[in-house]
């Protein structure tokens, strides 16, 4: 069924606790944890507890949870004190754009200058 946990999905395993992560925030619908390979001084992933392969498919099926992710990105940025200097929220979508984990997630990046356009 759409949204159900997938046995072979790393982020579903983080949601269930089967794979450990440094969780910084959790809500009824989302989990936020530190990226294992940070690309900035602050690099946090915000994921839905439900499984969808990318942000666009999540938004089609679960608009409220998609909004929850954006809200949590802002809350985490404030808690990490990167909101004042600026932060970036990224949804890599598709392998050509660098997506490697096919469970929707927002990268929240900050704590250093961020170039535009990104690479
Ligand atoms: P993407 O390449 O956009 O799919 O992002 C996947 C992100 O997940 C990468 O930035 C990885 O460093 C990160 N990642 C992979 N495995 C883990 C893990 N076990 N705990 C935390 N972050 C992870
Ligand atoms: Zn998943």
Automatic annotation (TrEMBL):
**A Pfam family hit:** HIT
- Which InterPro entries does UniProt cross-reference here? Histidine_triad_HIT, HIT-like, HIT-like_sf
Report the residue ranges where the short sequence motif Histidine triad motif is annotated in this entry: 103-107
PROSITE patterns reported for this sequence = HIT_2 (PS51084)
**Entry's SUPFAM superfamilies?**
HIT-like
Residue ranges of domain HIT in the record: 10-119
Name assigned to this protein: Histidine triad nucleotide-binding protein
Species this chain originates from: Streptomyces coffeae
